[in-house]
Amino acid sequence: MKPLESESLEKLRGGFYTPKHIAEFLGKWAVAGAKNVLEPSAGDGVFLQVISELDQPPVNITAIELDPNEAEKAKIQLHNVETSRIRITRETAWWILHSKAYR
Fold first, then answer.
1. Which CDD domains does the record match to this protein (predicted)?
2. pTM of the entire structure?
3. What is the mean pLDDT of residues 2-7?
4. Bigger pLDDT: 25 or 97?
5. Least buried of 15, 19, 76, 100, by fewest C-beta within 10 Å?
6. Quick check: 41 pLDDT over 80?
């Protein structure tokens, strides 16, 4: 077991960054034809970027990211994307209240 000091901040908070080629595969497979998409752990936004660039992107994309620094990274990833249909929030209560839309 590594001492706590040698662990990266991302590992300590449980962060994992999906490589873009994997996000592209999963985005095409999991989101094809969906009207609404919920990304419960947006991180740096790689899935959001991939999903928003699909031939027929979802009408609405909601992303939850608790870490404000990561939420900002996700917004930066989307700098060339029309974002009126994308919502990035830190509110997990939003997901609980609206989860029926994603069943």
1. AdoMet_MTases
2. 0.67
3. 53
4. 25
5. 100
6. yes
* For the chain, domain boundaries: 38-102
Q: Are 46 and 25 in contact (CB under 8 A)?
A: no
Is the separation of the CB atoms in 48 and 68 below 8 Å? no
Residue 15's pLDDT is 67
Residue of 90, 81, 35 lying closest to 61 (CA atoms): 35
Please compute, for residue 44, the number of CA atoms within 13 A of its CA located in the half-sphere on the CB side.
9
Cβ-contact 73, 44 below 8 angstroms: yes
At 22 the pLDDT is 92
Instruction: List beta partners, residue 87.
Output: 62
- Whether the pLDDT of residue 35 is over 80: the answer is yes
Pairing outcome for strands 36-39 and 60-64 = parallel
Pairwise CA distance, residues 81 & 96, whole Å: 27
- Helix (H) / strand (E) containing 49: helix 46-52
Q: Cα(89)–Cα(85) distance, rounded to whole angstroms?
A: 13
